[in-house]
């Protein structure tokens, strides 16, 4: 098993090779630049931005995987370790949108210090967020393992709770199966047309609907998204067919969000009907440290307890008492899970394992 020092040395070696090979371009400043040094004197010791920079540079958690998501082909890219520091710092401040990071690159002195004066395109920030999405759970597990190793977290008493969060999707752009299939067919026809045919037949091109992307890349992204929407609608139609005849919805009333077909529709905290996700977390009662989390595309909390219990068990944490509310139905399977050594406290009642 690699130590933090081993990981830090490997990360430095890997970054030097990537930069020297031209895969990534270097930032405009370094630590000897007067602009960076001037900003450095304005940031206090122990500031959050310094802690994050030091944690990534020292290998407190393994970030080599973020370099691997780049193919090393094409034009030089922004150094991903700097983008990672930016993402972590902004999330710690509650600024989770890449558009906010983009603005801070031009106005926030601490962000400029962290990024060595680098200017990054807004689209690059969005792409980076999407690239590292699959790595977040792995990083969270590394931080949890480190906290357990340092005896910062025991996890013997924990609580489970959930909340709905708005999906990054429009609540007005909805589609049923007929509409989605129609759009997929029109996209297929548009993408199969040759450039010569398209340029010669300008009248036909002017008949493209307003919802259709103008570029081939945009059309391909739309086709991928609508294909997911069709699969999701097929699942919903199958579920609807299993209901009693008096409980079934008309087929044209079964709709999904065309911008995020995996989300579900429901009322948010402000009673607005919109696409949502159900975020569940299990937290240590003593420290509020998140022991496990998961995102579900469902309205209720039913069935969310078991996956989170499995994650905690894989982490080697043994929960003696778990506090839950009335939204979590429990049964023999949950209370006999090896994660539990004691009991599950459920709305004031105690279910002993």
Low-confidence stretches: 10-21, 347-353
Compressed to H and E, one letter per element, the order equals: HHHHHHHHHEEHHHHEEEEHEHEE
Indicate the percent of residues in helices.
40-55%
* Main sheet: strands, sense, barrel: 7 strands, mixed
Q: Treating each run of at least 4 consecutive H or I residues as one helix, how many helices?
A: 15
Average predicted local confidence, pLDDT:
82
Strand coverage percent: 15-25%
Give the structural class. Answer: alpha+beta
Task: Give the number of DSSP strands.
Answer: 9
Morphology call: flat
Overall description:
The structure is a single chain. The protein has three domains: 4-148, no CATH class; 153-166 and 265-352, Nucleotidyltransferase, domain 5 (2-Layer Sandwich), CATH 3.30.420; 174-262, no CATH class. Strands 1, 4, 5, 6, 7, 8 and 9 form a seven-stranded mixed beta sheet that branches. It has helices at residues 4-20, 34-42, 48-57, 64-68, 80-92, 98-107, 109-114, 122-131, 136-149, 177-192, 195-200, 202-205, 216-241, 305-314, 332-335; strands spanning 157-166, 174-175, 256-257, 264-267, 273-284, 290-296, 319-324, 340-346, 349-352. With 353 residues, it is an alpha+beta fold. The chain starts with a helix and ends with a strand. A hairpin with a 2-residue loop joins strand 8 (340-346) and strand 9 (349-352).
Give me the secondary-structure topology.
Layout: H1 4-20, H2 34-42, H3 48-57, H4 64-68, H5 80-92, H6 98-107, H7 109-114, H8 122-131, H9 136-149, E1 157-166, E2 174-175, H10 177-192, H11 195-200, H12 202-205, H13 216-241, E3 256-257, E4 264-267, E5 273-284, E6 290-296, H14 305-314, E7 319-324, H15 332-335, E8 340-346, E9 349-352
